[in-house]
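Structure, all two chains, one model.
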Amino acid sequence: MNVPDLLPHRYPILLVDRVDDVVPGERLSAVKAVTCAEPCYAGVAGLACWAYPAVLLVESWGQAAGILAVVSHPDPARWADQVMLAGVMAGVEFHRPVYPGDVVRHEVAVERVFDDTVIFSGSSTVDGSPVLTLSRMVMAFRPSSVLGEAS
Amino acid sequence: MTVGILDREQLRGRIAEVLEVNPEEVGDDAAFIDDLGVDSLMALEIVVVLEKSYGVKFQEAELRQVASLRQAYDLVAAKLS
């Protein structure tokens, strides 16, 4: 399963490296390896600043969820003109920092599918220890044509 | 989350938790969208929490009926009866 074929994201914001297991409509397991070469570490000096930014960790998990949404749809071509939007996140907890050298494993489960909206839950772990848990992420798919151009 | 017995105050609390407001702000007839500032995605969140809390399933055509605490309570009660 080739990740760039399943997401519109590209360097430096493509934050899923590999999909290990997927059951369309149910669940997905994917990994993201964090390295010192991440663009977010440009200019970092202090050791404390090497914690991987929590917002990028959530973005990475959300991209894994986006892959699950795309492969779950009976007509994947339908997503060609759709923009995936993380509309709501609830019950988001960070359990410990992630550092370069960590391989983050994302586990995503589909909670509910509506017409153009999917609700996910799940977690991320490093070496089996939880680093992130999410009760809900509401992901909406909207045609790119209805999104206004940046002003 | 364990599947619960329908209780109006518990339902009020669960909806308030989703909306991140105090339970007393969720009046019986307060309109989720017009009075409580709920958007379309938050409305779906409410539906999912109700489904998980009470072990019921909403049809897409019913989603618009979940527009206030009273309507949500009546709809869940009808499904449980």
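The mean pLDDT of chain A is 92.
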